[in-house]
Task: structure prediction
Amino acid sequence: MTVQIGFLVNPIAGMGGRVGLKGTDGVLKKAVMLGAKPIAPQKAEEMLREFCVISTNHRDLQWITCGGDMGNSELESVGIKNKQVVYSPSENTTSTDDTKNACKKFLEHHIDLLVFCGGDGTTRDIFTIVDKKIPLLGIPAGVKMHSGIFGINTTAAAKMLHEFINGRLTIGDAEIMDLDEELYRRGEWKVRLFGVAKGIVEPTYIQVGKACFESVSDDEVKDELAEHINDELEKHPEWLFLFCSGGTIDYIAKKLNIQHTLLGIDAIYQKQLIGKDVNEEQILTLLKKYPKTKILLSPIGAQGFILGRGNLQLSPAVINKIGVDNIIVVATPSKLMHTSILRVDTGDKKLDRLFATQGYLMVVIGYRLSRVVNLQTNSF
Amino acid sequence: MMTQITKRNANKFLKDEYDDLVKNHLEWNIRVLESGSKPHSIVNGKEVIMMCSNNYLNLSNHPRLIKGSIEAAKKYGAGSGSVRGIAGTLQIHTEVEKRLARFKRTESALVYQTGFAANAGLIPQLVGDGDIVISDKLNHGSIIDGVRLSKAERAVYEHRDMSDLEKVLKDADKKYRRILIITDGVFSMDGDIAPMDKIVKLANEYGAMTYVDDAHGEGVIGPDGRGIGAHFHIEGKIDVEMGTFSKAFGVVGGLIAGSQDLVNFAYNKSRTWLLSGSHPPAVSGAQLAAIDVLETEPEHVKRLWDNTKYFKNELKSLGFNTGESETPITPVIVGEPGKAKELSNRLYDEGVFALPIVFPMVARDKARIRTMMNAGLTQKDLDFALDKFEKLGKQLSII
Result:
């Protein structure tokens, strides 16, 4: 059976980096004036070249792409023949609209995977159109890569593509992050979760026989996590639980029949939703009424942040009141393969130091199963 | 004729699931040994040098074990008639346990039907609700199943990583009633050994109980093959030394060695022990003889190690990567899974029987042939096997 791979390059992605701008969203002209050169086409070609080296059988592969340097010329330059152009950009300068329009065409062609080269901005544009309908694989070219769908470099992306085509990788959740570029250029971090897309992940394996393993889907692992959290809720009926943002926690909440806010924090008491999408002030009010509270967190995005990028409602005041010991971190093993380290940046030095002194957190990775994951504070 | 309307085909899944396994090449192809498990075995009609049995000391063919078996059968009959708890404890069963404790230099010992039965029966009794089991990441499947039967929480630490273990202990110390650290003694894939001395030290610091599954160490490591406790000179300091009679001892059956309190607790609470029939006398007779042989004929353990050292060194000097093994389990790491399978097939054709181990049992690029040494193999046998490894290793561009 032929595998259809969508291929899209955002040629202007990554141009801000070398000239000290963080991202090209909205400041392309300035970047060009500062002497910025296109990076993404080169990165895309690098990845394709590496892919051609490790993957020799291209007969069953059909590339669906866009005209010019939005994909076609990169495929051409490495000698890939079995391709079809389904969208051509209208002007010389590509834009958000081009990315979005190309994605609409990709949807019509029912592609199996969309490989793209760009940054977080490109990812958000793509996600807006394809949502969870097509799994994504990013070749990093942009300045900020917080989203979980990128290979860590072109080599890793080429390998992942190869493994996916050979059926050795599976489809799982990957978070798309959003950073306010205006604020970022002024030196402020404001990252939040934008949405949960489909990405390609390493399956989790469990030993079923003496020398025999079975791969488990991402959803099966999350079912186990949900069962674990269900036990926690039942064991502690007097506790308030704050379910934070993220794909894994959203899945758990749905499993427990709780209407959860994917991008926000919800307050759960005795399995009932008592506060939806609560802000810092509302949380502090709740804490007066419920002195015993646990926070349910999951690392978000590619860098493994649990505090400080997203979940900004969990201010130092909130965390101090609840207590570091009352944080439950959950993550699927496939996610931890991406982020071998958890990061915390609460903005409060004393609190960060408290995390730093401990140096690690226990992370729940299955039903009643946890492991140590090392912790890093205020570094990036 | 009336058509019977059935609600569902109750047995359809049997064939469907088996067909699926076959399609994915995951089914077990059972190989039949027409000989006994011998250094030269007849496997599927072909004579091969056996390099994948657990019969490390070749005791399964030892005349004293065979004799012990026959005599016990003559004296006590073919079966035991009951479970141990009711009317199935024969004098020979208790004799094995006494001799075993003496051999292990522990206060007491208990024999289970199998090693699996020991893990699956005892672990869930040692820890329950409000407790935690801390487990090496690469522990054997029967431990994992034993832990699953318990209501305790589980935490894993990185393979043989003591700083990781200490982190988990520190965290567990605050939260749980009882803490059990559990590890394989010798890890069956890589042949490396758990740092039991350090584990015991950490366990004492944090008030944790220690449990070691020494299936591949029993009869192999330590002075006279007395296992991992003896290997680290900490006999009696590991709370539960669990092992098996099915590997180096050459028979079958699980065992635990430790304090009298442990044994009293274990046989009163292990459901596997209480609810399955006890060993036939012939099994116990062979077990008893195996302990005899280990205590009086040190040459078997010595030959096993001489063979191991020779084979490992020769493989290394041929240019093979043999990993970090410290035991008679020697992996020959070849890289690609396809290559490992090919090498195993060709070795069999050439008369050497050793099986490939591939992803996900080991990392994708660490596919290997796992060889297991046997004290009954002669220098000539080893040279024969090495010759084949060299020839095929070159053919497949491994060396």
Summary: The interface with chain A takes residues 26, 137, 140-141, 144, 152-158, 164, 167-168, 171, 174, 357, 360-361 of chain B (CB under 8 Å). The radius of gyration of chain B is 22 Å. The first strand of chain B starts at residue 40 and ends at 43.
